[in-house]
Amino acid sequence: MGGDTARVSVVVSAEYDEPVETRELRYFVAVAEELHFGRAAQRLAMTQPPLSRAIQQLERRLGVVLLHRTARAVALTEAGSVLLREARLALDAVEAAERRTRRAAGDRPGVVLAVKAGASRELLSELLHAYAAEPGAVAVEVMLCGPGEPESLLRTGRADVALLHRPYDTTAGFDTEDLHTEQQVVVLPKGHPLADRAYLSSAEVNAQTDLPLPRWPGRDGGHPDGPGPQVRDHTQLFQLIALGLACAVVPESLRDQLRDDHAIVPVPDAPAVTTVIAWPPHSRSKAVADLVRTATRL
Fold this sequence. Notes:
Blueprint: E1 7-8, E2 20-21, H1 22-34, H2 37-43, H3 48-62, E3 67-69, E4 74-76, H4 78-104, E5 110-116, H5 121-132, E6 139-145, H6 149-155, E7 161-166, E8 175-182, E9 184-189, H7 202-207, H8 234-242, E10 248-251, E11 262-266, E12 273-279, H9 286-297
Parallel strand pairs: 5-6, 5-7
Antiparallel strand pairs: 1-2, 3-4, 7-12, 8-12, 9-10, 9-11
Helix pairs in contact: 1-2, 1-4
């Protein structure tokens, strides 16, 4: 990111109008995510005393307590939770502005499209083929990534446009167009006692204990607590299911990635999954506009 002199205004109270520095936001996010000043200081490649002073100065400036500190633990206050959410968005916006500015100054025009590996394969293929036939089409760099990553790549400016999937991805803050809506199914190992059912409810999927649901990485890259296996992508997930170590509720379109040792059962009450094409609301890129127009036409 840019130097520490860059500033972003974060409005917390009308009584405090002095802008907060991006440096302070980075410091606070590190402490809020680690909930430990020593680990946060190590992550930031600095010593702990100046980090503690910076957080105290931030609290004085905002006039709020952001962290509860004891000899054994650090915890976020309600105000701290709000600032963590807003600070992440602000830092993402600054990072995105820097990346898109550098890309706009490059010699090779193009557009970067982020999509989960294995997801929306048919749609993606049709989109790239149709867009390439458009007059004035530019090169499209496709970034295939793990679950949750396309949204992050779009927010931080590493991608210009992304295919996202509600409700798994958050589209708040983006402009979007809905492309396709589908139902979900549960993937089981072939021969499982539930594999012959005409359908299963979400409660039945969650209640069966022999096959836990997987744990996907969160925004910070860590996995939530739980009994299920940690997974990074669908290839890994489907292999674990075939081995009888997990089950998963997934969009129906992923059935073409399954093998003979899998079984699928519809889950009618699971939330429908909508594939959307998303882009930053301030984008003025003609290539992005043309790509979105092609996608909606499909």
